[in-house]
Amino acid sequence: MTKKTITPTINGEPKELLVDQRITLLDMLRDELHLTGAKEGCGNGNCGACTVHLDGLSVDSCLVLAVETTGRSVTTIEGLAKGGALDPVQAAFLNNSGMQCGICTPGFIMATKALLAKKPNPTEHEIRTSLAGNLCRCTGYDKIVRSVLALTKD
Amino acid sequence: MTTTEKQPALIGQRIAKVDGLERVTGQAAYGADIHLSGMLHGKLLHSPHAHAVIKGIDTAAALKLPGVMAIITAADFPELTQEAAISGSSEYSIGAANLRRLWMAHEKALFSGHPVAAVAATDPYIAEQALALIKVDYDVLPWVKDIDDAIQPSATLIHEDLFTHTLGELPKKASNVAQHVEIGNGDIEAAFRDSDVVIENEYRTQRVHQGYIEPQASTAQVDPSGHVTVWTTIQGVHWARFDLASILNIPLGKLRVVPMEIGGAFGGKVYPTLEALCILLSKKSGRPVKMVLSREEVLRMTGPTSGSIVKIKTGCKKDGTLTAFDAKIWMDSGAFPGSPVAGATLAGFSVYQFKAFHIDGYDVLTNKVRVQAYRGPGAPQACFAMEQQIDLMAAKIGMNPLAMRIKNISKEGDPMTHGRPHVKIGFTEVLERVKAHPAWTSPINGPWRGRGMACGMWMGGTGNSSAHLTVNGDGSVSVVVGSVDLTGTRTSLAQIAADEFRIPLEKVLVTVGDTDQTGYTDTSGGSRITYSMGTAVHRACVEAVEKLKGVVAAQLKVPVADITYQNGIFKASNGQSLTFEQAARTSMRRGDGPVTAVGAVRRLKHAPTFGAHVADVEVDPETGKVTLLNYTIFQDVGRAVNPTQVEGQMQGGAAQGIGWALFEDYVYDEKGNIRNASLLDYRMPTALDLPMIGAEIIEVPAGDGPFGVRGCGEVPIVPPIATIANAIANATGVRIKETPFTPERVFWALRKAGKA
Amino acid sequence: MKTFDYASPATLQEALGLLGRFTGDARPLAGGTDLIAQIQERRREPDVVLDIKRIPECMRLSLEKDGLHIGAAVTCSALIAHPAVRERFSILAQVASLIGSVQIQNRAGLGGNLCNAAPSADGIPGLICLNAQAVIAGPKGRRVVAVEEFCIGPGKTVLGRDELLVELLVPEPPAHSAGSYLRFIPRAEMDIAVAGAGSFVTLDPKSNRCKEARIALAAVAPTVVRARAAEQSLTGQPLTTSAIERAGDLAMQAASPISDVRGSKEYRLELARVLTRRTLADCAKQLGISL
Ligand SMILES: Cc1cc2nc3c(=O)[nH]c(=O)nc-3n(C[C@H](O)[C@H](O)[C@H](O)COP(=O)(O)OP(=O)(O)OC[C@H]3O[C@@H](n4cnc5c(N)ncnc54)[C@H](O)[C@@H]3O)c2cc1C
Ligand code: FES
Ligand code: FES
Known about the structure:
The structure holds 3 protein chains of 3 kinds. Chain A is built from 5 helices and 7 strands; from the N terminus they run ββββαβββαααα. By secondary structure, chain A is an alpha+beta fold. In chain A, the strands form 2 sheets. A 5-stranded mixed β-sheet of chain A has the order 3-2-7-5-6, covered by helices on one side. Chain A has a two-stranded antiparallel ribbon with strand order 1-4. Chain A starts with a strand and ends in a 5-residue tail after the last helix. The radius of gyration of chain B is 27 Å and the shape is globular. The longest helix of chain B is centred in the last third of the chain and has 28 residues, at 529-556. Chain B is 28% helix and 24% strand. In chain B, 60% of the residues are buried. In chain B, the strands form 6 sheets. Chain B has a 7-stranded mixed β-sheet with strand order 3-5-1-13-10-11-12, sandwiched between helices. Chain B has a 6-stranded mixed β-sheet with strand order 7-8-16-15-14-9. Chain B folds into 3 domains: 20-27 and 462-601, Aldehyde oxidase/xanthine dehydrogenase, molybdopterin binding domain (Aldehyde Oxidoreductase, domain 4, 2-Layer Sandwich); 37-374, Alpha-Beta Complex (Aldehyde Oxidoreductase, domain 3), CATH 3.90.1170; 423-460 and 607-756, 2-Layer Sandwich (Aldehyde Oxidoreductase, domain 4). By secondary structure, chain B is of the alpha+beta class. Chain C is built from 13 helices and 14 strands. In chain C, strands 4-5-10-6-7 form a 5-stranded antiparallel β-sheet. A 4-stranded antiparallel β-sheet of chain C has the order 11-12-13-14, sandwiched between helices. The longest helix of chain C has 22 residues, at 265-286. Classes of the chains: A alpha+beta, B alpha+beta, C alpha+beta. Chains in contact: A-B, A-C, B-C. At the A-B interface, helix 2, helix 3, helix 4 and helix 5 of A face helix 1 and helix 19 of B. One FE2/S2 (inorganic) cluster (FES) binds next to loops of chain A.
């Protein structure tokens, strides 16, 4: 039997899904649930474009099996804006032009969100270290780092 | 009731991206984000050999696998029509015959990774299983590894029927050199004799990939009547339509190319890659087919920029006056002709004025994937050589390297290498800014630290553009363009329109349309959109204002000539007036129809851009590792329509150049397979590898185009490699003449010089 | 990709039972940062993927009398966040924060790092420096193997097909000791080590000389290796610049690297020396010795 029923919570909604045991969380989000905000840039943990939160921690969803998510909660970029209002991290990237083509943006926003939950006032160096698992080829990171700095208190 | 209070100018404002919202919420739909009902998944079978005759392909077993709906090979391509064979989509085209062979190997596989067959199946795992069942009978040939290999007289021939294209006598023997360009001016022998210093060196750069984060992705649907729709991530939908239509023999009117949001391109998505294969699979299976490349495939079968060898001799006088240079450039184009050797000879060598010069450029074929454009194609490789030579000569005569540059820069009216004069350029202003800036003047503290600079230019793109504009009944404006937005051009075009009408930015909606909805527009590339499409939009705005004047004149019952338009208000000389919004409403009410306008641009003059970069580095003498401490870009952008976006272009381009300098490289095994085809080992800079990148905008308006704008996206990648090489030399006294400057390469260079 | 079955047993008993029953290739899954990547890239084709993250023993992270117990699936992030680890086993927090990105550290752990048995594994030198033991469970009960002896070649370990790594047991470092790990990569983060070195020094507080030194090198041999000659050269000696220099030179003797995509043999030898010196200097600094 190649398929298995799983019961994760996705963006707050309990789900019951029958999935091929081989597929990754990223494939499940994109192909089964059509939540295409998480992107595949490399498929092996090196670009961070697929970053989502698994039980509140940032992970590369290309390196998680869908079947691992039973009983766990997954948050994607689509789950950040609440009641029509942008999450502050989304607003910061928008207002500080922390993006160009935008393919890396959902991953950066999810990584930033996780960083700020752990450390509300990171230094520039801490920001760069924490975002080293997210590649951006368009911006040179300058405006991304500034978007995150704009969210710190000092 | 008026909404058009006096609007501030929008040109030059830092406006957040008008299409940023869908990007921060994950709603923007990129190439791979499309799902059609009944859609099949396509996968490619790649040649494991760098050079091999394909004797036969047996797909019988694979076709029997349940779930496999179609398999195609080269045999499924229609014969090339006479017309397609001679025309390409543009002067830059690779040509229909070669493009087709690049998409799928025909008689021979020409590089490791070259597609030889494609499968469409109901799920990706079945497609993959089917690939394993396809039997390809290869006759493996020796492969041509690199430029040195390719130009040997005894070299294996990649194409038996390729003869060097040259202005001189046509060769009788086939060769791996596709083209030889030769340009020059003045008596270089005499100029060298007249020099106080003559320095000769050889510089090498490796192939590097554009590195867009979004792998190529296409979906095609062929309906029973033969209408074809392709959703794809490509820089130009009209070019793509032309290429696909001519090669697949589909009437243009039956082929619709729909642009998806594009997740980075940088020149690497100019040509179609998967589109034709998806179309053929869809035609055969009767179902929509989607294909998405893996990162490994992106690195194996999509085009990087050329590796190069530059042998160069330069001379100067004791007072710093440049006398002569003699350069030979070889550029590796991969399996088909088309390296950017022309870009190298022009943009790479027109930065300074020499009394005499001579350049030989060679387009060289190897058994590697064919190169594609990459920001400022050809210029960084030439700049890498020239800018190090300038530093070397400056050191030899004891002159400040910036002073030496200032003394010899090209100015308006000076000839470029092809003989035509430079138009109005801002190079002097750029270097004056460097001279006074702390990035250049501040002291460098600490051992093993150094500072370097380098300059570069890019011609700027022009090309065809067309825009359609509608003035809506509520005073808003819709603009539809056929140019894909790579860099934020929706925002800059909206700024241009809103500025011209003096209406709020929110009132302008810019849409990127598909080939059925838009007029012919060349590809987005060469930094041409804000410049050329900006002009088209501007022209449409001017036309719309003229038409609205007619509406207003009729309404106020005065002659048209009596109406002026200023600050969002139409005024008659008798004092009556209508706002833009009132005029728009009137246009719908009066029955003389909606106001629409078209702006079309054929070709503008080039508006070249110059940049100078300054970097501070620290070198660890025990490991060879180079750390970038500071980086500042100085660039003439003509007029920054949106300074934030302009800075973003400058910083992004420089970051790519820094990756080129420090990390990026392809490693091949002895059979021609890429050994580092992943983002773990194809190392692009992370946030931690870069400092904040200073972006100093200089504005010397260009002669043509709207508001003096110059294309700003190409030139930032030109100077970084040379800048960092010069900084390393300044820090260590050792010159690195080959990219990338990996720790290991730097370490051994230091060791050889007795410094490590 | 071959199909496989996924199981996530809730107890060690159940896991061992499953392992015993399967005939094909059953791969334990901890954080999956090696395993899932290997499966995706078709480098491994298991029949069964056995998730160990519901097994309490594999998730345990606690400091007991006999030392620090690190369950086989405890993540790098959990290690970094643990105050006792940061204070008393700082070399482990140091290596955990080197492995991959934050996203990787939220999944990957030292157990997986060890079982994957890469010559370049950043986690292993630190464990060897601290004299860690691997606790293995199998059908015949438990056995304990020194981490140093756990890997027997690239990707090869002493584990039998029906055995599981349960946890790592790390004895509390003695007083007057310090450890440090450094690896060399071209970028600042996100690379596999070209070479790595871990050093651990215990001082005799009376003489201020080295009572014991342990040095382990990564990516310079088929497995992580001890640099014994270098260690011995330090025993009984004060930690001085010249002693450190000599130890660095001797570390090269333990190295037998190969040339590959990431670096040449000769360069790796140089790095082994430099990194050994630098980690020893860092130990000295932590011990309050000025060089
Ligand atoms: C982007 C990226 C960056 C990385 N950077 C680094 C780095 O800097 N340094 C480094 O050392 N590594 C690095 N790695 C490799 C990897 O993350 C580490 O080796 C990690 O520690 C593995 O832990 P894991 O829990 O994910 O292991 P898994 O992938 O779950 O397992 C690894 C192997 O061990 C086996 N295994 C796991 N648990 C057990 C058990 N209890 N009993 C028996 N066998 C078991 C698995 O079957 C598998 O073969 C990187 C990986 C990626 C994708
Ligand atoms: S796609 Fe998951 S890290 Fe790149
Ligand atoms: S904005 Fe394009 S990759 Fe980051």
